[in-house]
Amino acid sequence: MILVPVTYKGGIYRHDEIIDLIEDLGGYIIQKHIIAQEVVLQALVPKDDIELIRKVGKPLTGDITPSPLVGTEIAVVTPSLEIHHLPHASCDVAEYIRRYGAKTNMVGLARGFGKRIAQLNDEERDVINEHDLAVYLLGDFETCIEQKFPVLRRGIMVPIVLCGGPPTEALKAIIDPPVEGYVGNIGRFMHRTKEADEISRLDDVVEEVTRVLDKRREEMAKDPLSISPARLMDIISEKVDEIHEVLSPTPITVQMGGLRVKLPYDTFGTVLRKTVIDEGVTIGDLADVLPSRMRDYILIRIKPFSETNLMI
Amino acid sequence: MEAVEYFEVECPEKAGGDYYRRIADVVLLDHNLIRVVLKLHIFIDPKVPLFVATGITRKLPGTVKVRDFADVNRKERKVTISIGDEAYLAPLLQILWERFGKERVEQPDRFTIMLDIDEGESENLEDIPVFDPREAIYKDLIYALQVIQPEGFKVRRQYYGNGRFYLVASEDTLPEDIEDIVRKKFSLMGESL
Questions:
Q1: Could you say which of A113, A116, A165 has the minimum Cβ distance to residue B15?
Q2: Chain A residues with beta carbon closer than 8 angstroms to that of B30
Q3: What residues of chain B lie within 8 A of the CB of A119, using their CB?
Q4: Gap from B114 CA to chain A (nearest CA, Å)
Q5: Do the chains contact at A190 and B171, CB–CB below 8 Å?
């Protein structure tokens, strides 16, 4: 069964029927938002059943659209959280990627500004490495990007999509070794992106991110995970009651290769490790349960089939 | 930027220069400074690195005195000040409190201040300078230029006087001949420092 990431938007009336339907079909609800009279569901659903969900949702004014980034967590890295980059550029990009289903976190570096003085500390490096992909938003000058980018990428293991003011070709020429994705003409700016050509550049970012993540999915498919992250999320929310008391919008954040569980590691690390998935198989058997560098959260990295010889 | 008579961004990287032109435009507009600036020349060299902004302001309005925004009525020891423009009320109150003491300054409502003072003391009440817009504009202007400049340029020198202003900034120590560079930029605008 192939699960496809989709967004369902519809009225709040009888929306639980849609949730039940998706779950009965074997799909997973990743995130649910209720905004006034509207419900937005981000879900993974079986490819063959999309038409059925659309049919059931139609009388409830529901609409289902593909969102390629559902189930991914993306870091948007900016040199700092100062007025030079915020709210425009950084927030515009982060927000736009979010519309396609990704969970984006903004990482404002403590000392990422400047050409010679730019630095990346170990905490920032580790936090970025906990994501599926990092979007770097740098400035307008080739000279600066060329000099500072090697420092800012040091130790980053996740794919990087580099955005900057110079054209894409110029970015490709100055970055060595190459990164996974480039988007030019989107550097530092101080105004809101609302004109058509600016929006189309944001589309380019989403396209590039999708392309890079698709490539990563293909690679992961060669040695699939022992359990799908969405399924593991379902199991945790069913078996660990405390997760329902967490107030953050996504108490369990789904990533491509794991989960971020927003419970304190000291108390719940062992609990999660011992949680039974199926007939004597525990989470600890299939995944590494690690302390996250983000607050005191837990990071679960699911091991591939080749390591566990188990597939659930 | 039609309101600005001269506006140039000089940069060895053409694309970067164009971006900064737009940034400067947007920032000045957002900070309501377009009407204040008459000429502006920005020079950025990311290789050095150096940022120089030089410019000239329009003729700014003079100091605001009490007579410009309020009426003063005297009746023996009772002096009533009726406020026309609330914007200057707070600085005026500060001045009155300092001069006469809080116990002699009464404010029955938002638009009225009543003073209990001698005739001698109330003589030049209308001519008290309350607010100097030049000082505020200088601060706003320098702040706006700091927003325009590339981030990370922490070494700065700024100047404002006689309608001329400049801000130079860099990541490294400023070059020794910085004043000469600034003078050259002023001469490009057909002005002198």
A1: A165
A2: 190
A3: none
A4: 44
A5: no
CB contact under 8 A, A116 and B172: yes
Quote the domain boundaries for residue A57. Answer: 3-66
How far separated are the first and last CA of chain A, in Å rounded?
Answer: 13
The alpha-carbon gap from A265 to the nearest alpha carbon of chain B, in Å, equals: 37
Q: What pLDDT does B76 receive?
A: 82
Question: Could A114 and B151 be called an inter-chain contact, meaning their C-beta atoms sit closer than 8 Å?
Answer: yes
Only one residue has tokens 């029955």, namely B108
Q: Where are the domains of chain B?
A: 6-61+133-188, 64-131
Fold of the B64-131 domain: Gyrase A; domain 2 (3.30.1360)
Q: Do A217 and A77 share a structural domain?
A: yes
A262 and A189, same structural domain? no
pLDDT in tens, B83-94: 998 889 999 999
The string of pLDDT tens digits covering residues B149-182 is: 998 899 999 998 888 999 999 999 999 999 999 9
A78 and A50 part of one domain: no
ipTM associated with this complex: 0.86
Q: Dump pLDDT digits (tens) for A10-54.
A: 999 999 999 999 999 999 999 998 989 999 999 999 999 999 999
Q: Which residue has the tokens 């000058």?
A: A141
Domain termination site, one of A43, A66, A89: A66
- Mind listing the pLDDT tens digit for each residue in A74-95? 999 999 999 998 889 899 999 9
Which of B19, B151, B153 is the closest to A80 by Cβ?
A: B151
Q: Is the pLDDT of residue A279 over 90?
A: no
Q: Which among A169, A201, A221 is the end of a domain?
A: A221
pLDDT of residue B2: 65
- Domain CATH code at residue A17: 3.30.70.260
Q: Which chain A residues are Cβ-neighbours of B22 within 8 angstroms?
A: 189-191
Structure tokens at A307: 């390591």
Q: How many domains, in total, are found in chain A?
A: 3
The secondary structure of B35-98 as a DSSP string is TTEEEEEEEEETTTTEEEEEEEEPPPP--EEHHHHEEEEEETTEEEEEES-GGGHHHHHHHHHH
The DSSP bridge partners found for residue B8 are B41
Are the Cβ atoms of B47 and A143 closer than 8 angstroms?
yes
Q: What is residue A220's DSSP assignment? A: H
Residue B150 has its nearest CB partner, among A139, A166, A191, at A139
